[in-house]
Amino acid sequence: MDMLNIDISDFLQKHQLPDSYQTLARDWYLPIIEEIATHQNSAKRTITIGINGAQGSGKSTLAQLAVYVLTQHYSLSVVSLSLDDFYFTRQERTQLGQGIHPLLATRGVPGTHDITLARRTITQLIHQQFPVSIPRFNKAEDDRFPVESAEIITHPVDVIVLEGWCLGAEAQHESSLTQPVNDLEETEDKDLAWRRYVNEQLARFYPKLFELIDIWIMLKAPSFDCVFQWRLEQENKLKRSLSESDKQTQIMDEKAVGRFIKFYQRITENTLNTLPKKVNYLFELDQNRQITKLTRPTQSTLNTDLPCQWLVFTDMDGSLLDHHNYHFDEAIPTLTALEQNHIPVIPVTSKTAAEVELIRDSLANHHPFIIENGAAVYIPQDYFEKQPEGTEKRGKYWVKSFVQPRSYWQSLINQLRPKYQNDFVTFADAGIDGIIAMTGLNVHAAACAARREFGEPVSWHGNGNLKQQFIAELNALGANILEGGRFLHVSGQCDKGRALKWLTDMYQNTMPEQVIQTLAIGDSQNDKAMLEQADHALVIRSPVHGLPDIDRTHNLTVSTFFGPKGWAEGVTQIIDAKLHSDSFNLPRGNHG
Predict the structure, then answer these.
(1) Can you tell me the mean pLDDT for 349-365?
(2) What sign has the CA pseudo-torsion 85, 242, 221, 172?
(3) N or C: which end of the chain has fewer CB within 10 A?
């Protein structure tokens, strides 16, 4: 089939495109679409194409062309998605605006997309978990279409085409956020709260979506200056396609477009600098959106296995350590093999630094660790070549903390104490003897548990209704409450996933040529954030409670066995299966 001479006149008519687009497609796009079809045949699985481009660059039209050609001329089953389809609803964004920053009520930036829904939708399509509901966003109404009008996919899909203006965007270093890029940031985000929130969302959640993309295409604007005119043309085209009544709803005029694109400026400009070297196909555009050049910065990694460095982040109680006796004998051979192959095992726990140090000694573990539900990361001094930025020296460690110290949270609890005088006891109230009585720990272990640095455990003795009121009032004061099996943990806005992401970045900075692969292991709801954040998740079955409620479906393994036996089983299964290295063979042991 000669792809360069196919007739796309009906496509041009449907999308109100000039005849010149036929030449553009023939000269630039159709050869690439042909290559993608060949990729799909060799992959023998569903592949995902990601198309990046600034507003008005033509990425949506290219996505539609790819769907048309792959469907009509290659008889492939194709689903087209836009990152825009996964915007939070207007009500959800209103809540973000009220709860975090007013600018988040406006759709567009990272943090206004439902990334969990996007990942779930794509992974369901890839793994053929039908039926799959495809959400769509109504820009004229600035809201998602009703669920009942969603497209339902019930058959296997060959290709997923996903387009979006911030696909592949990278978070910036904190120091880059301080200087505003336009008057919107300067006047409406004076304290940098909006910028920091958007940047953190981009760092934490969007890479897990981007990793689902096999082939990357970028339509690169010459600069951000021409994006206003392009976006205005896009709005006018939308306006022409609507009825008179619809035009009175959410269609933007020229002034509104000028303000709207300022939301996108920072990330668009950064993406123009960082993404081009990482894509498979880079189309460079001039101010009139004409293609001036096609380059191929990277080869498709569909059929390649890149060398990688694994990091194993593990919960302790009930995961690596047996729930009943805290033994880990069945995991020892696997732990030894990981150490011999220079794969760090990084404890991630609700325990204190003092408690973790005891466990690390018994494990002969010398790697960093994460304490108090992600409140801080402890890195042995000189573990990395230089001290990571944002850490402080504390004893023999470099420490990165994410929340205020324990004394701060104690002061908030004490503000409420007169109202709930006989309803709770804190660790500070109880002392060592009281902690022993509440936990059953021996005196040495109780002393270590008492040495909390970033939060305060509370044992609640009052009724349940009052407890919920107590929690709500602490939340109103800015505290974050984690409910464990026996205690309320009062601290700040931290979680194991955020700490995992930060430490992973530190490893990546020290080995830029390596591909970092992260495995998170846990057994309870308290581990959800890191199980969602890591590249691979291993859920350990528990003899005392059900599986945690997590959203991810890709790269997810659930152990057959409990505790350390399930831990060894899962680690062996995941890392052996993914590493493809003759020099790395974990002991399989007797799992029968």
Answers:
(1) 94
(2) negative
(3) C
Contact 118, 208 (CB under 8 A): no
The catalytically annotated residue of 85, 114, 143, 315 is 315
Task: Confirm if 81 and 213 have CB atoms less than 8 A apart.
Answer: no
**Nearest alpha-carbon partner for 435 in 359, 352, 358:** 352
pLDDT at 587 over 70: no
Check residues 80 and 140 and name the one with the higher pLDDT.
Answer: 80
Tens of pLDDT, residues 252-276:
888 888 998 999 999 999 999 999 9
Q: Which residues are registered as beta bridge partners of 159?
A: 47, 78
Is residue 114 within 8 Å of residue 86, measured between CB atoms?
A: yes
Spatial distance between the Cα atoms of 515 and 132, rounded to a whole number of angstroms: 32
What is Dmax (Cα atoms) for the chain?
84
CA 39 from chain centre, in angstroms, equals 27
- For residue 53, what are the β-bridge partners? 219
Mean pLDDT over 284-309 rounds to 78
Residue with tokens 């979680």, as numbered in its chain = 495
Per DSSP bridges, beta strands 308-314 and 345-347 are: parallel
Partner residues linked to 515 by β-bridges: 308
- Dist. CA 522–CA 552, nearest whole Å: 14
Main-chain phi, psi angles of 49, to 5 degrees: -100, 130
- Starting at the edge strand that comes first in sequence, how are the strands of the sheet with 556-562 ordered? 345-347, 308-314, 515-522, 536-541, 556-562
The residue whose two tokens read 């999308």 is 15
Give the whole-angstrom CA distance, residue 117 versus residue 427. Answer: 40
* Alpha-helical runs (H) found in 342-382: 353-363
Cis peptide before 388 (omega within 30 of 0): no
Instruction: Report d(CA 166, CA 50) in Å as an integer.
Output: 11
pTM over 0.70: yes
Any catalytic annotation for residue 315? yes
Tokens of 15: 């999308």
Q: pLDDT band at 581, cuts 50/70/90?
A: very low
Q: How many CB atoms lie within 10 A of CB 40?
A: 22
Written as six digits, the tokens of 45 are 């699985």
Structure confidence at residue 482 (pLDDT):
84
Angle at 263 between CA 259 and CA 264, to 5 degrees: 115
Both tokens of residue 589?
């042991």
Looking at residue 74, the DSSP 8-state letter turns out to be: T
Q: Which amino acid is at 16?
A: Q
Burial class (CB in 10 A: 0-12, 13-18, 19+), 132: buried
